[in-house]
Amino acid sequence: MRRKPGALLPLEHAICASAALLRRRGVKEFHGYELAKQVAHDADRRLLTAYGTLYRALARLEQMGLLGSRREDPEIAARENRPGRRLYTLTAAGETAAEVSSAPRDKLRRRTRRRVAPA
Amino acid sequence: MMPLSLRVASALVRGWTRLYTLGLADHVRGARREEIESDLWESHTDPERAQSGLQLVARLAAGLADDLGWRFEQEHTMSRHMKRQMAAIVAVALIAVLWIALSVRLSPRAPQPPELPRTLHAATFGMRMPPPPPPPPPRRGDPVQPGPPPVFAEASFTGVDGMTAPVRVKNMRPVYPPIAIAYDLRGTVILDATIDERGRVVDARLVRSIPVLDQPALNAVRQWEFAPTAAGVPSRVIRVTVVYGPTSPRDKSNTR
């Protein structure tokens, strides 16, 4: 998908908005699967975002400075007997982007409802 | 116990991740594989959202293009990094070459021997070469540059076939060519000269030849003059030995 200069792609909007929502719920750091689940929940979709699409978008958002990330302490992962996680945080810029991006997303939702709704 | 379809789907996801991260930098490859592994683990252990093997495969298939795109971006980033390294290496090499060139240019030059002329080269190695173009004629008003004093070879002669050597009345010493001196060409030229009854050299024939040194010897000997012979003796032959060597005298006088 071609990006307009200075604009986020719909998936990037969705990730920022979901991350903002998680943050408001008190989850400061979240891993990729958690984000994918939240995005699917917010979009009311059953299927999670594809692996390649999700992690490529996360890498892009990190490069843009909207997300930050760190590798989880390996001791914690070892203690819980699971693979190590990469934990993401929403930056201030990401939060702003989430607020700005919520308007067009709502507009899109309303338009979709109008199409689906019977005349 | 995980269902077989889920295990197969997980293996597919792992296998594909290994495939498209092959050859990338260790930290990039490791981070991506760890992230996918973590995602798989979370999805398997998530009590709220149990996923089937088919869903995992669909999630994998939908992201194939992005996986390849991500891989391409990583390679592009790597190549840019390598390009930067290459540019730095080239810049250092250029600076080194410039520095060497400048230091060579600024340092005083050692005297170089003159270039071996083609004719001399040909004569030395027995080749036939066309004669060199004549030097440009001096212009009027050009100052005459005084050259270095000439060096002469030592020439001696004896009678041939038991004849006594005639008395030489005019001597001309063979010139040691500067080019032969420059290239340290040494040797002995031997020639037989025929003298007529009036004491003039009428013929000169080389017995031992050194290509570059022959001509000066012949030129000199042909100018020699001897005392006339007694009546009835038609001609005499002398053997002339011309030695070109390091002890050749440097003298302006040619008739010593």
TL;DR?
The complex is a heterodimer of chains A (119) and B (256). Chain A has 119 residues and is mainly α.
Structural class of chain A: mainly alpha
How does the major sheet of chain A shape up?
A: 2 strands, antiparallel
Structural class of chain B: alpha+beta
- Specify the CATH architecture of chain A: Orthogonal Bundle
- For the CA atoms, what is the radius of gyration of chain A? 16 Å
- Principal-axis shape of chain A equals globular
- The averaged pLDDT of chain B comes out at 81
Protein model, in words:
The complex is a heterodimer of chains A (119) and B (256). The radius of gyration of chain A is 16 Å and the shape is globular. The N and C termini of chain A lie far apart (32 Å). Chain A has one domain: Winged helix-like DNA-binding domain superfamily/Winged helix DNA-binding domain (Arc Repressor Mutant, subunit A, Orthogonal Bundle), CATH 1.10.10. By secondary structure, chain A is mainly α. In chain A, helix 1 (10-24) crosses helix 2 and helix 1 crosses helix 5. Chain A is 60% helix and 8% strand. Chain A has helices spanning 10-24, 32-42, 51-64, 74-79, 92-116; strands at 67-71, 86-90. Chain A has a two-stranded antiparallel ribbon with strand order 1-2. By secondary structure, chain B is of the alpha+beta class. Chain B has two domains: 4-102; 154-244, TonB (TolA/TonB C-terminal domain). Chain B is built from seven helices and six strands; from the N terminus they run H-H-H-H-H-E-E-H-E-E-H-E-E. Chain B has helices at 4-20, 26-45, 53-62, 64-106, 118-124, 178-182, 211-221, and strands spanning 154-159, 168-170, 187-196, 201-208, 225-226, 235-244. In chain B, the strands form two sheets. In chain B, strands 1-6-3-4 form a four-stranded antiparallel beta sheet, covered by helices on one side. In chain B, strands 2-5 form a two-stranded antiparallel sheet. In chain B, strand 3 (187-196) and strand 4 (201-208) form a beta hairpin. The longest helix of chain B has 43 residues, at 64-106. The model of chain B has no long low-confidence stretch (mean pLDDT 81). The interface between A and B is medium-sized, with 23 and 32 residues.
